[in-house]
Write a structure and sequence with these properties.
The complex is a heterodimer of chains A (820) and B (128). Chain A is an alpha/beta fold and 820 residues long. Chain A is built from 31 helices and 15 strands. In chain A, a hairpin with a 2-residue loop joins β6 and β7. The radius of gyration of chain A is 58 Å and the shape is rod-shaped. Chain B has 128 residues and is mostly helical. The N terminus of chain B is likely disordered. The chains are: A alpha/beta (820), B mainly alpha (128). Chains A and B meet through β14, α25, α26 and α27 of A and α1, α2 and α5 of B.
Chain lengths: 820, 128
């Protein structure tokens, strides 16, 4: 994250008072990346990445010193384009197919590994990358980097049969050899400040669609991190919205499913979640099964209660009955024995002794015997009591045992009343049980133990069966409910987990939305700030290129985002705002593209101090070419501008406007033998060539072809020189006078041969051809006039005259130049 | 002056001129670097003109005063091959254009020249 960018965002946040808002920190977190954003949302601030104290310095500027090409495209044997590594304008002139574009493409391939010309097209376009006549393929370029004494060499080499992708890249910079271009720090600059502009690119940039153009221009603004941050916020928001939406849809499906389940728990869950606000805690409780107040839970409790009923255990019944019978027997026995009598007698004696203790000695109150009650009698009675009590104890024990036995029937059927009360509510039929119980409890009224035993015996079985049946019914019902309920629990469980997560995360949305909105606005503002100066520069260039175009370009603006991002060109045609691009000619479109991209390539942030433009002149009329020449002149004041062009229009303009430039000519022979040479003006060039041919006429070592052709070639070249100088004179005179380019060109086209061209130069009138020779004789002298005549008539000359002819022709051109 | 290397109108002059023209294209002589397009154009033009001239000589016609353009129109009647005559006309126009300086135009390419030269060769064959 560019710290400068971060500072700007922070200051904007402060200015808007947004840092105080809870969503303010989200923006900053988003700038640091997705992980930071998520951490921030989870709660609290993640520790911010330490801001680098210094921004990574911009790489030093690089100039181009030479480009060498071998076996690539139109170039066969190795050729090197030598350039002056510094600010200035260089034109490389050559016909299409002369190999000139191969140099431009070579540089592009060298640095980027591909050519935009082929990149998005079918393989066919790229397959011809090798030169047909030469098997070794090697590209290299030398750069001079500011501050580095050693030049930097980048080269790509291919084995003789290697495919295009398998190039061996070597970079040899000031800091030693490397294996990739990254080490130069140029990788991102190659994209954002692309220093190669080609005809194809210029043409397609405006065709490819508004968003592509937008991307191409916005990439120089260095605001990608903002875009990424916006993306992070948007993604965070969308994922949460989606989670919520998915949970809601799942809820709908779940509800439909649950409605099919005949279980009160299911109904409770539906009630909890069918509304807008979900009661997820309730659902959790229902799933847990315990402590809920829903009716479903109650039902289950009841059923569970009933399912847990214990019927009278037959063994226990038998045991109890047995005991009862034995107790009855013991009781009866005890009653028949003296035990009963003893108990009664003991009672009596107790009372008597108590009487004696209370009233002292005396007569027996019962039988009247005198002095029967005395101390000895007391003592006798007390020991008798002990005996009697013992005997009574047995009777007591038998009674007790009988009582205990009687109670046992109660223990035999302990049925918890609570559950049974609600049995009807859960759909269970109690009638059988009630009947059996009714019979059972009659035992309470039975006194006789033997009868009781018999009753218990008979009544226990029906009771037992009734309980078992009821219990089984309850169990069955529980199982049934479980069968319907159990599978659904898993579904509810998983939905619950997702829903809880979605709801929790959705709470973040109320922060994410304002953060996203703010950043969008801020990003647009920063974009406009940064793009403004570039747009102005582009508009300036357009002004110079437009010449007589009716199209006026006002503001250039980047607008919109996402799929609606585009570049708005405020174009008016004759004052009427129009569908700009639609009304512009090809040439105007190119000019527009140039206007947009020259500023991009010459920004101070670019490490490339050179720009290479391939064929910008293609569709331009001569007037616009003048404008282009001026634009290039301006750019070349602090940049190395290398322009490839396929005809003489731009060089001619550059010469005529006295723009300092180096002009190189490229020609290609058979076998892809490419030649480069410095081109003076055409006149000088023709004369030089003529001299070269003339000079060989006498040399035995010269190429036979050349020497023997001197007779024709020398006068021909001299004629070309004279034609050229006449045209030069005419053009200069008329254009300075203010005539339109088109007019001048039309006149020049009328000069179909040298004499007519001379007439134009001398008289501005093609019709006065006959007077030319006379005038020349008079003003230039007979020798020059004679030379003119011979050359104009295409006469053969003797080889030994060749040099003289050239010399005289040269003088003649100087004479013409001296006119007015 | 190298004896024997002067160019004179002779029986084999069109062929010689044409082969010299082709030689300039094929031979990568640094001395001819950059000037071979125009030079070979001159020679090609000359070869064509000489060939047409030869045709008139054979037919005992004197067309020397006529502009070449007109002569080439006559060619259609006298050559016996209208198609070749038409191509010859085009090739000469192009070669001749290359022999003059025209605004903004650069010299022809090797490919273009080869095309025109093959027409010249056909013409030479036909006339001979």
């Amino acid at each position: 994250m560019d710290p400068g960018l971060r500072r700007i965002v922070v200051s904007r946040l402060e200015a808007d008072g947004a840092l105080a808002e809870r969503w303010g920190p989200l923006v900053l977190a988003a700038l640091e990346g997705r992980e930071h954003l998520e951490a921030q949302l989870k709660g609290g601030s993640a520790s911010p990445r330490p801001v680098e104290p210094h921004a990574s310095p911009a790489p030093p500027g690089a100039f181009l010193r030479s480009v060498s090409v071998e076996g690539f495209r139109g170039i066969g044997p190795a050729r090197t384009l030598e350039l002056t590594p510094g600010p200035g304008l260089t034109l490389v002139v050559g016909r299409n197919g002369s190999g000139k574009s191969s140099f431009a493409e070579a540089l592009e391939v060298l640095l980027t590994g591909e050519s935009l010309r082929w990149k998005d097209r079918a393989a066919v376009w790229r397959d011809g990358w090798r030169n047909l006549h030469h098997s070794t393929a090697l590209l290299s370029a030398t750069f001079l980097v500011e501050g580095e004494p050693r030049p930097c060499v980048v080269s790509r080499r291919w084995a003789d049969d290697a495919s295009f992708e398998l190039a061996e890249l070597a970079v040899d910079g000031d800091s030693g050899p490397h294996a990739d271009v990254d080490s130069l720090g140029w990788t991102s600059a190659l994209r954002t400040h692309r220093p190669f502009l080609s005809y194809n690119e210029l043409g397609s940039l405006l065709d490819e669609g508004p968003s592509k153009l937008y991307d191409a221009l916005s990439s120089i603004l260095g605001l990608e991190s903002l875009l990424e941050a916006q993306g992070a916020l948007q993604e965070a928001r969308k994922s949460r919205e989606k989670a919520l939406k998915d949970a809601t849809e799942a809820r709908d499906r779940l509800v439909v499913r649950l409605r099919d389940v005949d279980d009160a728990r299911a109904r409770d869950v539906v009630a909890a979640i069918e509304g807008k606000k979900w009661d997820l805690d309730a659902v959790e409780a229902i799933l847990g099964g315990a402590g809920s107040s829903g009716t479903g839970a109650v039902e289950t409790e009841v059923l569970r209660g009933i399912a847990g009923l214990e019927p009278p255990d037959p063994a226990a019944v038998a045991d109890a009955v047995n005991e009862m019978r034995q107790a009855a027997g013991a009781l009866e026995a005890a009653n028949r024995t003296a035990a009963a009598r003893s108990r009664d007698a003991a009672k009596l004696l107790e009372a008597a002794v108590a009487f004696h203790d209370a009233h002292g000695d005396g007569d027996c109150p019962v039988c009247g015997r005198e002095h029967a009650l005395d101390r000895a009698w007391n003592k006798r009675q007390r020991s008798a009591l002990t005996r009697l009590r013992e005997a009574a104890r047995e009777a007591d024990a038998a009674n007790e045992r009988a009582e205990v036995a009687r109670q046992r029937w109660e223990d035999l059927a302990i049925l918890k009343g609570e559950s049974l009360k609600h049995a009807a509510e859960v759909g269970l039929d109690l009638s059988e049980l009630v009947e059996a119980l009714g019979v059972w409890v009659q035992a309470r009224a039975i006194e006789d133990l033997e009868d009781l035993a018999r009753h218990v015996e008979t009544a226990s079985r029906p009771l037992r069966e009734a309980v078992v049946r009821l219990r089984d019914a309850a169990r069955a019902e529980l199982d049934r409910k479980d069968d319907a309920w159990r599978p659904v629990t898993a579904e509810i469980g998983s939905w619950l987990a997702a829903a809880q997560d979605a709801v929790r995360r959705a709470a973040d949305l109320e922060l994410l939305k304002p953060a996203e909105a703010w950043l969008k606005k801020a990003a647009a503002g920063m974009r406009d700030d940064r793009f403004g100066p570039i747009a102005e520069k582009a508009a300036g260039i357009w002004e110079r290129l437009r010449q007589q175009s009716h199209v006026e370009l006002g503001q250039i603006q980047l607008t919109g985002d996402g799929t609606r991002r585009r570049v708005v060109l405020d174009v008016t045609v004759d004052g009427v705002a129009g569908a700009a691009l639609g009304v512009m000619s090809q040439g105007e479109l190119h000019s527009l593209a140039l206007s947009l991209f020259v500023p991009r390539a010459t920004l101070p942030e670019s490490p490339f101090r050179f720009i290479v433009i391939d064929d910008p002149v293609q569709s331009m009329d001569p007037a616009r070419v003048d404008g282009l020449a001026r634009v290039l002149e301006t750019a070349s004041k602090d940049r190395q501008v290398v322009v490839f062009t396929h005809d003489d229009r731009l060089p001619e303009a550059v010469r005529r406007l006295d723009i300092a430039a180096e002009i190189l000519e490229v020609t290609r022979r058979e076998g892809s033998v490419v030649e480069l040479r410095r081109s003076l003006d055409p006149v000088g060039r023709y004369l030089e060539d003529a001299l070269a041919v003339a000079g060989t006429a006498g040399l035995p070592s010269a190429a036979a072809a050349l020497a023997s052709s001197a007779a024709h070639v020398v006068p021909g070249l001299c004629r070309l020189a004279l034609e050229a100088v006449c045209m030069e004179v005419v053009r200069r005179r008329r254009l300075t006078r203010g005539e339109a380019h088109a007019e001048v060109e039309r006149s020049l086209n009328e000069a179909t041969d040298l004499t007519r061209a001379a007439a134009l130069a001398l008289y501005d009138d093609v019709g006065r051809s006959e007077e030319v020779l006379k005038r020349l004789k008079g003003e230039a002298g007979a020798p020059l006039a004679e030379t003119f005549r011979r050359v104009a008539e295409n006469a053969e000359i003797a080889p030994n005259e060749a040099v003289d002819v050239v010399r005289l022709s040269s003088k003649l051109t100087a004479w013409f130049r001296g006119l007015n | 002056m190298v004896p024997g290397l002067e160019l004179r109108s002779g029986e084999d002059s069109p062929r010689a001129a044409l082969s010299m023209a082709r030689g300039l294209l094929a031979l990568a002589d640094p001395q001819t670097a950059g000037l071979w397009p125009r030079a070979s154009a001159f020679l090609g033009c000359r070869a064509m003109e000489a060939t047409v001239q030869r045709l008139w000589e054979r037919r005992a016609l004197d067309h020397r005063g006529c502009p070449m353009r007109i002569q080439l129109i006559f060619l259609r009647s006298y050559l016996g091959d209208a198609d070749l005559a038409g191509r010859a006309g085009h090739a000469w126009s192009a070669l001749s254009r290359a022999c003059h300086h025209h605004a903004y135009e650069l010299a022809p390419t090797a490919t273009e020249l080869q095309g025109w030269f093959s027409v010249v060769e056909s013409l030479i064959e036909k006339v001979d």
